[in-house]
# Entry
Amino acid sequence: MATPNPLLVSLDIKATDKVISIKENGNIDSNFVITHLIKQILLENNKLCFVILHNTLGHYHNVGKRLGYDFLKRIEDGSIRTIEPLKEIVEDIGNGKNYLIDDKEHIVKALYTSIKQNVEELTSTTPNRVYLIIDDVSHLLDLGIDLKYIISFITYCLSLVNNDKVSVVVNTHVCSKSDEIICNNLNYVSDVIIEVLPLKTGISREVTGVMSIEKSGNAQIAQFHFKAYDKGIKTFHLGESVYNLYK
# Structure
């Protein structure tokens, strides 16, 4: 890691971690994990194919500026490629093409084809790693896509790690049984499972939430409290919030 960022140190993501799943539970946002992973990807001179299903491109650019990287500039220099289904949906309104068509299986096939093409083009232009980040796959359910097609879509995306230079990060938000099924399928094949949860005791000024990190082959699950700030995140072991926040 190029910088001792406390969250990145806690995550400890390595090149051997080829499938990473992020699960957000309840009324809490795991977006900070993704934006910090992007920071690490760029610091290591890796490349990124980013499927944006939750926030806008402008959101990631604004957060990136606070974290020390220029998202739009990295798109311009070819380090990042974005696929924006939400933007295309707005453009499709009125003509019934692509994401608004009735054939929902075609939607995920077309999305995967675009992802595969971008990932393959990125791998051909760099000796370093290429990351595919999907944020967040749960929104495919909002488009009326059957669960079976979403599971197939995820399976196809994960097959991209057959290329040793590729890693895949999938974010999901759990608020339904279908979301839980998606998460469970991801958990079976993930090298790293990151779960973000709200505090059981409710809202706190000192702590934003709880993050757990489970790694394949490691029976022990690491747990941290975290505190969100405008320019980053502080993480600390459970019960150490006061000491860490004010030192």
